[in-house]
Write a sequence for this structure.
């Protein structure tokens, strides 16, 4: 999945616009965009939308961002939405593999009560949204078979740090948040799941978004969170391999297939080794997902 578009669970018409945006996934938000007094309403709206979407073809995958473990609201969220069988939950403020294991257990119990197959609801973890989250970013491997990816968030992190800003005037991250971003990348690699880049708040400037998203792809991110439908086409385009990239990947795979057991191969005067082969195979596999 390349693009993950947030929309408040109480969004009304925004929900249908999100579904038609071209996003690979739509995230029904029960957390930051919902005030405390509207949480119960939002849970009901999320469940109704999930049930109404069941059986519809050619739609994005549906995720629900629940509230964090420390809020006292996560159980009510799961009690409400599991019956709607979302593809996954977005788990905010995850602080280490143990918290994902904890959430896994909560989902297992509720899937059984709802008559859903064990493990059918996946977990996308927002893993570096706090200082603790940064220091536990490397602990997610084998935490849960449900884990499908890791992302991060500079907004909550900057609030915890008491920072005045997390980006420079040109939109680039300041040093503390570049470190946090890198830790998400390393943590996802250690857990063997995709890393998903965080949101870019400037949704009115597609060129800044494009530049920042191209850097994310270059560095190893596999997709990006979005906060506005206008961001989706840019994100999808950047994370869709070009014809040239696909052709090159196929050439690398074919060259190694033609020389079984070879550690390196030469193509057009350039040497390619096993890391190149793995990247080529991963790119071609992404076309099938």
């Amino acid at each position: 999945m390349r693009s993950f578009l947030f929309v408040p669970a109480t969004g009304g018409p925004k929900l249908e616009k999100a579904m038609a945006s071209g996003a690979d996934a739509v995230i029904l938000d029960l957390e930051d965009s919902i005030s405390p007094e509207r949480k119960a309403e939002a849970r009901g709206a999320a469940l109704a939308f999930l049930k109404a979407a069941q059986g519809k073809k050619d739609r994005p995958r549906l995720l629900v961002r629940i509230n964090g473990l420390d809020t006292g609201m996560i159980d009510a969220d799961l009690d409400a939405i599991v019956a709607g069988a979302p593809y996954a939950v977005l788990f905010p403020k995850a602080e280490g593999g143990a918290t994902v294991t904890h959430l896994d257990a909560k989902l297992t119990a509720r899937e059984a009560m709802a008559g859903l197959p064990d493990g059918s609801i996946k977990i996308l973890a927002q893993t570096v949204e706090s200082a603790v989250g940064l220091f536990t970013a490397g602990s997610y491997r084998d935490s849960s078979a449900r884990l499908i990816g890791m992302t991060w968030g500079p907004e909550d992190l900057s609030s915890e740090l008491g920072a005045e800003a997390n980006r420079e005037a040109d939109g680039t991250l300041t040093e503390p948040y570049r470190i946090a971003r890198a830790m998400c990348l390393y943590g996802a690699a250690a857990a063997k799941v995709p890393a998903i880049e965080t949101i870019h708040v400037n949704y009115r400037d597609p060129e800044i978004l494009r530049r920042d998203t191209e850097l994310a792809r270059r560095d190893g991110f596999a997709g990006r969170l979005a906060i506005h439908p206008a961001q989706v086409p840019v994100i999808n385009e950047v994370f869709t391999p070009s014809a040239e990239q696909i052709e090159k990947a196929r050439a690398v795979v074919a060259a190694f297939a033609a020389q079984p057991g070879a550690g390196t191969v030469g193509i057009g005067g350039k040497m390619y080794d096993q890391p190149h082969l793995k990247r080529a195979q991963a790119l071609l596999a992404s076309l099938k997902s």
Remarks:
- Residues 28 and 64 are 5 Å apart (CA to CA).
